[in-house]
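Input record, target 12 of the design panel.
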């Protein structure tokens, strides 16, 4: 896809959950596409490194699960960078344990980060998008938004709610020229820390007999995910998509 024209240089993209994998790749992709990028995350050190690396980026230390802090941060982004033209909600809170072993309070924390924060973010940025008769809101999800599996009882419900919230927003905002899309990544993501600690095949992946193990077969590349997010954010209004599922070619589904 071609880069954005010069007049997009003043546009702002707000990204939550800017870690070392998908979030960082999305920030780089939108910056390369001509946006000023507001990066939200809890890790101040990582944000400083990314700000030094990515032209036109600004770092905002924020726990999106703290809704008051989130509101203050979004207001600061608008004051310093202008209205948000593209929002990417990539922040995630997750719990992987049996429903009997996990702390039930984790369900509420996960819901607040994954779903309630999305509602607050869209309430904050949508009015400017509607006034501008254009904007995009992209949410990154995973297969937990589509089905529940063992050890996901405190996580999958929050992602399912997130997806349905995004769908409701898409139906309401679409006629107002604001595109909402949901990107389901049906794969393990090739994050830097996998290399740092030794990349191994996840236990739940069982490739056909005779296949050689490689990262391209079973790990989704963060830069490739970012390309898809950027593409969906810039679809022609006559061909907007909502559900967009991506997976490596060898992934079972």
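The sequence produced for target 12 reads:
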């Amino acid at each position: 896809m071609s880069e954005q024209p010069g007049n997009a240089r003043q546009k702002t993209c707000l990204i939550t959950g800017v870690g070392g994998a998908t979030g960082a790749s999305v920030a780089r992709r939108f910056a390369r596409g001509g946006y000023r990028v507001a990066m939200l995350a809890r890790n101040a050190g990582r944000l400083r490194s990314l700000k030094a690396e990515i032209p036109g980026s600004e770092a905002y230390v924020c726990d999106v699960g703290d809704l008051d802090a989130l509101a203050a941060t979004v207001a600061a982004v608008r004051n310093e960078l202008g209205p948000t033209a593209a929002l990417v909600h990539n922040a995630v809170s997750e719990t992987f344990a049996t429903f009997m072993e996990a702390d039930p309070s984790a369900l509420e924390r996960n819901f607040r980060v994954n779903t309630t924060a999305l509602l607050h973010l869209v309430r904050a940025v949508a009015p400017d998008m509607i006034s501008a008769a254009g904007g995009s809101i992209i949410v990154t999800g995973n297969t937990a938004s589509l089905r529940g599996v063992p050890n996901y009882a405190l996580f999958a419900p929050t992602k399912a709610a997130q997806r349905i919230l995004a769908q409701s927003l898409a139906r309401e905002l679409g006629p107002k020229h604001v595109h909402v899309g949901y990107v389901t990544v049906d794969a393990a993501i090739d994050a830097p820390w996998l290399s740092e600690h030794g990349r191994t095949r996840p236990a739940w992946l069982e490739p056909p007999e005779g296949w050689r193990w490689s990262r391209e077969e079973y790990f989704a590349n963060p830069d490739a995910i970012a390309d898809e997010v950027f593409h969906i954010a810039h679809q022609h209004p006559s061909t907007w998509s909502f559900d967009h599922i991506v997976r490596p070619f060898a992934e079972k589904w």
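Residues 105-132 form the longest helix (28 residues).
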